[in-house]
Task: structure prediction
Amino acid sequence: MPSAPELARTRRLALGTSVELVVHPPDGLEAAQAVVDAVLVQLDRAASRFSWDSELSRLNRAAGAPHRVGDLLAELILVALTAAKSTDGLVDPTAGRPLIKAGYDQDFAQIQRDQAARTGTDLGEWGWQRVRVQGDSVQLPPGMLLDLGATAKAWGADRAAAEVAASVGGSVLVSLGGDLTTGGPTPPGGWLVRVADGLHADPEGPGQIVRLASPALATSSTTQRRWTSGEQVMHHIIDPRTGRPAEAPWRTISVTGASCVAANTASTAAIVAGREAPTWLAQRSLPARLVSQAGEALHVGGWPPDGDELPEWSRERGAGANRE
Result:
């Protein structure tokens, strides 16, 4: 493989997860960080479920009545509804109350400290087809709560990478919680990424180093955001068909795509699809790596068996999960 380019990187916490920024050439790091920070602030103000004064929280409190929202939140809602439609509801942003019922009712760091979930909240209403969007007006049925979590963070990675590439230049990779997007020209030697069970996985443990050919890669996992409710172990990926955490035979599913939104939509839907995930992904020709609960890896859609270059994404590939 060609020698690795000189890169500069930062890693910190924001939006309740790890944010990593990598740039080439290195002298663009400070300016790129300022761009990423601005995108994250806007995203938090618009779409945080854990901030009482965010636009999303105000919309959820207004459920039952039309509510005017800003351009950013309107776009994020449409992105989430498109993800729901393209996956036939396997990804559903309206399952906020089932998620709270499972115990994800506060920032995950606080759940980890408490190690206990609240279970007294009614499931309420969900179903993405029931959300009404007309221009800047959004109406939720009474009792419904939106949770834009996954798609909003993926959108944030896409937007941050695009804005850095446009305003700073050079090559950029932005990762939010391990879901990443690249922007600008490919650096010398390409982007080498280690795919594993989680952000804090042992570097010497199971995993795979791949070279990105597609702009984005996302990994959904049932092992990272876990907590205990009574004697049950819960995780954050809700199956909208049951209102419960998905009963997935997979520890992680990693998918490449034309955008982080497309890749994240597909990886989340595949977790919910359970045993049907390999077929669901193969039918959409999506390069994916699935790791079973026993630690066995399964590759579909042309994902390479060893450290190698991933197949290049095309418009014919994975159209069902692409927001475009």
Remarks:
- The domain at 62-149 is CATH 1.10.3980.10 (T-fold).
- The longest strand covers residues 17-24.
- The chain has eight helices and 17 strands.
- Residues 102-123, 225-235, 313-324 have pLDDT under 50 and may be disordered.
